[in-house]
Amino acid sequence: MTAELITSISSVIIALAVLFIAYWQGHLIRKHNRLSVTPNLQIHTDQNDEGNAGNIEITLSNSGIGPAIIKRIQLEKNRKPAGDLSNELVYAELKGLALKTKNVRTFWMRPGCFMSEKEKQTVLRIEFESTDLKIPASTLLDKIQQIFDSYEIKIAYESVYGDKFELDTKKQDRGMGAVPS
Fold it and tell me: What is the domain partition of the chain in residue ranges?
């Protein structure tokens, strides 16, 4: 082998190594860019009681570092579609409880909506007073929580790169949170 042949082969090997490293680095950069805009939707429930009055609030938040594009949102009760969350549905569910509602607010997203990073939306807020002074607000809050625990919210959403995720409140309650779909 001549020196020229060894130099040529070495040059080809080095060029192929540089090409592989450049390709691999590009792959890692694309992977990092995808992760840097990954949304993470979560549902939170907050309760407050003061004697015979109280409130309960269910909040949807994006704790991820990128916007979430809502593709599908579904409310189910006992594994069957329950339509949209509305004031009428809430009043029907609260019927029979010893309480007087002071304020009921519902918010239901539609497919195509965006949730920016760190955005929070109140999905449901109920402010009430007990109509029976023997029943404390904390007892009514437990009953309201039981009613709404029978519902399941499923939200299919995507990142700006089209990566698909699903929030399922029943899975979130078991510690699984939003999972890639």
Answer: 1-35, 40-180
